[in-house]
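**User:** Once you have settled down, spend some time on the protein underneath, comparing sequence with structure tokens, and judge whether sequence predicts the tokens.
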Amino acid sequence: MIIYQVLTRLWGEGRFSSWDQASFDYLRSLGIDYIWYTGIPRHASGKDFVKGDPGSPYAISDWYDVNPYLADRKGSRMKEFEALVGRTHKAGFRCLIDFIPNHVACDYSGALAVHDWCDGDWTDTRKVDWSAPSTKEEFIRVLKFWASKGVDGFRCDMVELVPSDALGEVIAEVRKDYPGLLFVAEVYGRENYARYLDEAGFDLLYDKSGSYDILRGILDGSHSARELTWNWQSLGQRQGSMLNFLENHDEQRLASDAFAGSPGRAWAALAYSMLFNDASFMLYAGQELGENASESGDGRTSIFYWCEPASLRHIWTLIHDGKGAGMQERSILAAYRRLCSLKQRIAGSMNWDLCYCNEDAPGFNPDTMTAFVRFERRRALLVFCNFSNSDAASLLTIPFELRDAAGITAETVQVSAAPWGFTLMKLNVTK
């Protein structure tokens, strides 16, 4: 599946009503399955302890309310949110919202037991006390409340800071009434993947310390492309439970100077993250036009302050009057659309990493290149990624086992890719 994360207050006029038919048609053109509406539950705003203005969506002050600033009429805000969920479903999408089990805002006054301290520098929050029996009971009520509004799942924040067994009990209890809910965990440590899948019962986990950190490291020269194979091997059968990404609200924008530096240096990383294996993929709104967070000082689109990322303004204008996006942005968007469409078409196909049998292939550098084949009946697609600032070319060997499994006729294939780019090649098959 493909998840589209959007900080709701930055889309259009920043209201629930901004999500009109043109918006949904646009996401359909990207092949999106789930829309993650970030920043829905009411958070602290306008208080001395709040970071920025209007403040962080991760400092919840009322778990049974939505942010008034998202509504056209504040008194009707929950009905307006319910209408948004209805429009989302009618348009053929499912929706996610945030679930933050580790902390609440300093001015929270609900039923959760709360410590009088915070983790790290999250000074606008207070730590939830998971040793209190009331915590599980209240979070079960919270999740069922939002599920009753039609929400299809939850992106669960910083789950490694709460007990996995207790969180698993909460998820299991909620699923008794709402078995179809999708639970996505923000997990950083690979050593915790099994625990949060098997014990806590999550459907998808961020592959942050795996594919994201490796790809980022390859781009800045601190990691080798060999590590992509190592990560794949370590994940094994858990590949399908991973959520790959190159951007989200916590991370620096891919095209920012703090990360890749430009959209052109990101294509190989994007192709690998999106096309290797059957992991799900997440896009962060504006990424598909090359958003670089030029309005910020750290390469991130702020979750604390009102801001206006240029690409989101351009998307809005583009989908409503056909203008607003420049030629480069349109070209980037077209490439994202092609990759998203391809990801959907090859979903469920087999994946075969070619690096192990090509370390000595002419022109192949396993530290700056990777190659793999996706195949199913009567179709085989080779993907070659070049993580270097020079043109790359290699004569790749297709091993007998793969040729036999996929019916591929060629024993070797000549491939090439531009600097930081990728190549897709259909292979001839006999079955």
Observations:
- The two ends are 28 Å apart (CA to CA).
- The chain has eleven helices and 18 strands.
